[in-house]
Amino acid sequence: MDRSAADRPLAKPGILDITPYKPGKAQADGVENPVKLSANENILGCSPKAKAAFAEAAGKLNLYPDGRAGILREAISRKYGLEPERLIFGCGSDEIFQILNQTLLEPGDNMVQGEYGFAAYSIGARACQGEVRMAKETNLRIDVDEMLKCVDERTRLVFVANPANPTGTWLPGAEIRRLHAGLPAHVVLVLDGAYAEFAGDPNYEDGIALAREAANVVVTRTFSKLHGLAALRVGWAYGPTDLLEAMDRIRLPFNVNIPAQLAAVASLEDAEFQARSLALVEQWRPWLAQQIGGLGLEVAPSAANFVLARFAAVPGKTAAEAEAFLASKGLLTRGVAGYGLPDHLRITVGLEEHNRGVVDGLAEFLKG
Q1: Cβ pair 39, 230 in contact under 8 A
Q2: Is the dihedral of CA 190, 192, 197, 198 positive or negative?
Q3: Residue 101 · residue 93 · CB < 8 Å
Q4: Quick one: DSSP state of residue 364?
Q5: 24-45+272-367 homologous superfamily
Q6: What is the pTM of this model?
Q7: Which parts of the chain are beta strand (E)?
Q8: CATH says 48-268 is which class?
Q9: Burial class of residue 150 (count of CB atoms within 10 Å of its CB; 0-12, 13-18, 19+)
Q10: Distance of CA 354 to the CA centre of its chain
């Protein structure tokens, strides 16, 4: 339709074809104060030091934040040994994905992601009228060869979450480097490390060393998971200076607010809270996988703070029904049909009583 001849403003082609992002449920009908295990949030909350910094920021609410996030830039540079000029900050790592798409994609260009990849990648690409190419995954895991098959002269971005959401699976550093070696120089490899802190296998690499030496690798991280600051929306990326300078030209001027910056800096300094958060996941993630597997469900090997269970092998029992049953018990989990996994249920690692409640609830559901 000719938009200039329309009787009302019309969105540009492709916008209304985008499926809106659907977050994990926060409420259940007829249940007061349900336990939210649907969004991979930190069940321990956040650092007491971050809370204190947030409260102190109340006296600065009349001020615009530092658009360059100077205090946070310095803190992350010091924490991870990174060059401060090679950092960029966003309202969550989601905004950084959006800026990457806006910076690199023209109509007719394409980006590549795994077939079960995080929805924010493709939403940003389609908003730029770019083509989204979904590479087949093998056993819910990114397949490097399938990713490379999707790349051509119009490819600008390749997105890999490692560990992945919603599957929890991961690729060893050698496979990530093989993927990068197979990409043309004009393609940017984006390594989404939202769950990087939870991956403890010695063969796992967070990608920062690769990004330091390569001209076409960007690593993103978030304060939403380990640090428990999801409400404040703080993300950051490390990559080549020239690309980040281009991205900075279209970044919104004051995208990371003052309370968020101060709380994030304080959280970085709270090693004890980070250690407790990791210890909880390291203890209960394998327990959940073993117990749920013992009920006859398939559980994907996870390196994140959640597990993914498959119901296809259980006759007459669906993931959607299990989600509804657990919700009736006050336990909110995440169906992932929107990711092309209608027979799977994603479950965030909770406190001991939550994890045991999930297993007991699933056992009751399966018997019924």
Answers
A1: yes
A2: negative
A3: no
A4: H
A5: Aspartate Aminotransferase, domain 1 (3.90.1150.10)
A6: 0.95
A7: 35-36, 87-90, 110-114, 131-135, 155-161, 188-192, 217-222, 235-238, 298-299, 306-310, 331-332, 334-336, 341-348
A8: alpha beta
A9: middle
A10: 23
SS3 79: helix
Cβ contacts of 6-13, under 8 Å, gap ≥ 24: 12/129, 13/129
> What's the burial of 366, exposed, middle or buried (CB within 10 Å: 0-12/13-18/19+)?
middle
pLDDT tens, residue by residue, 230-262: 999 999 999 999 999 999 999 999 999 999 999
- Terminal Cα-to-Cα distance of the chain (whole angstroms): 53
Residues 347/323, Cβ–Cβ less than 8 Å: no
Share of the chain above pLDDT 70, in %: 100
Whether the Cβ atoms of residue 229 and residue 88 lie closer than 8 Å to each other = no
Separation between Cα atoms, residue 325 and residue 307, nearest integer Å: 18
Question: Boundaries of CATH 3.90.1150.10 in the chain?
Answer: 24-45+272-367
